[in-house]
């Protein structure tokens, strides 16, 4: 009698652990680490308006007028590399700088009266493209949360040195 009860308990325990393992495996399959990292990169890029302005002003030559016109691009590059270098490939960081994405966001923030914060960020996997996501978000003013702009774009992720990194970013303001 005891051995039969023991077998039932052992079988129940084995089934329980198998169910837990199946749930864990399914959850792991549904999680998308590339998408999570893409969301982080987009969030950081869209949130960088006041930080970029401060970095640009700090990198400006002494005696120059404050603002983006007198920007030292090496200083801005160093700032962005420190903020997003681990999340972007070097080529992507160079393209972000060449396309002036951070300064475009900062200029929009200046027109809107201050720092912008992204809201309602959505990423959707692009059909037929591996690790490519379309994104959209509203940019709200930090002071009163009024809509300043709607942004959209794409981000493509690659695995480099065992980590997911942005390989290409487009941004439509």
UniProtKB/TrEMBL annotation:
Natural source organism: Faecalibacterium prausnitzii
Protein name per Swiss-Prot or TrEMBL: Uncharacterized protein
